[in-house]
Amino acid sequence: MEKLLTIIVPVYNGASYLEKCLTSFIDPSIEKELEVIVVDDGSEDATSEIADSFCKKYPLQFRLEHKLNGGHGSAINTALPLVQGKYMKAIDADDWVITENLCRLIPFLRETEADAVVTEFDMIYIQTNQIQHKKLECPCGKEMALKDIIKLFPKLRGCFTYHGLFFKTAVYRAANFQLSEGIFYEDHEYATLPFAKVKTVLPIALSIYQYRLGDAGQSVAFHNQVRRISHIGKVLKQILDYKDNIADFGEEPCKYFLYKLADILVSFYAVALVKNPNKREGRKQALEFRTYVDTRCPELNLMISKKYRLLWLMNRLHIPASFYQWMADTGIYGLARQLWGHF
């Protein structure tokens, strides 16, 4: 039977959580239609042994690939030529899926020919056991043209991320790109670059991906964001370079790219101006990058100018990163943005 869905699981030293991730893909009803490619990115623990045990027990479903350590993006790049599924998705080894909802998704993938599928997902804060649900605020279950998605994008952007997106494999490959290797935050490329070729999207009101948050070592931890701020900047530059090198870039993909680039740019300024404890250094980083963006795509700075001024004010008031995050989680930051305007 043809595989309908391929899940790519990049993993480096994931022995402590890989079993939970892989177990979540197991259900007899989808065994023949689901392929899981585990890419061991040069692990030095028992990752390989755990993955191999699943391959032996479920040979129709699991495959294991080994490579030298090169980072998250390199693991996905390595798996891409091996993908057999009609649709594909990457899921991190410290996360998992809701198995019954994954089973409910398969019939949709069987019937649709949409270039991309977007689903809801949950953010799991492991230290507090809180769950933040990312919901699709649009008609679900029917294909939509990208131009109609763009009209609703301010309400949908929370699901159009690494965690919510599935791509038709042929469309992902047709976009003809390689994810950045050896850096963090290349998941923004994964959620953006394929849309150079996406014309139709199928929204599905199912929560699939369970995104685990709260580990100090994660790339989303404040201190890691500050330390790796150049990675955020590099990803934005890579997406701009890709966009500028396509001569026949369509109007709708261009709008989608600008929305995604604006989100990345806000993230950069938030790290520099609020999350960096050295406020003076953060202002310098923000000003330098703002100058660079003005030379490449001044429209981006205009799109988020009011957010930038709000973040600059927070910097001057020495608002701590923890308070900023509390504002974001409770919606107060969004209210402040509305008072200042939003794009």
How would the global form be characterised?
A: globular
The overall average pLDDT, rounded, is: 92
The oligomeric state of the chains shown is: single chain
- β-sheet strand percentage: 15-25%
Helix content: 40-55%
Q: What count of structural domains?
A: 2
Uncertain runs? none
Q: What's the name of the CATH homologous superfamily of the largest domain? A: Spore Coat Polysaccharide Biosynthesis Protein SpsA, Chain A
- Count the E strands: 10
Top-tier CATH class of the largest domain:
Alpha Beta
Structural class by secondary-structure content: alpha/beta
Please name the CATH architecture of the largest domain: Alpha-Beta Complex
| Termini Cα gap | 46 Å
Main beta sheet: 10 strands, mixed
Number of helices: 15
From the 3D structure, determine the CATH topology of the largest domain.
Spore Coat Polysaccharide Biosynthesis Protein SpsA, Chain A
- Compressed to H and E, one letter per element, the order equals EHEHEHEEHEEEHEHHEHHHHHHHH
Compute the CA-based radius of gyration: 20 Å
From the structure above, extract its key features:
343 residues; alpha/beta; Spore Coat Polysaccharide Biosynthesis Protein SpsA, Chain A; 10-stranded mixed sheet; 15 helices; globular
Describe the structure.
This protein is 47% helix and 18% strand. It is an alpha/beta fold. It has 2 domains: 5-213, Spore Coat Polysaccharide Biosynthesis Protein SpsA, Chain A (Alpha-Beta Complex); 222-340. Strands 1, 2, 3, 4, 5, 6, 7, 8, 9 and 10 form a 10-stranded mixed β-sheet that branches. Helix 1 links the parallel strand 1 and strand 2 (34-41). Helix 5 (146-156) runs parallel beside helix 10 (251-275), helix 9 (229-244) packs antiparallel against helix 10 (251-275) and helix 10 packs parallel to helix 13. The chain is globular. 43% of the residues are buried.
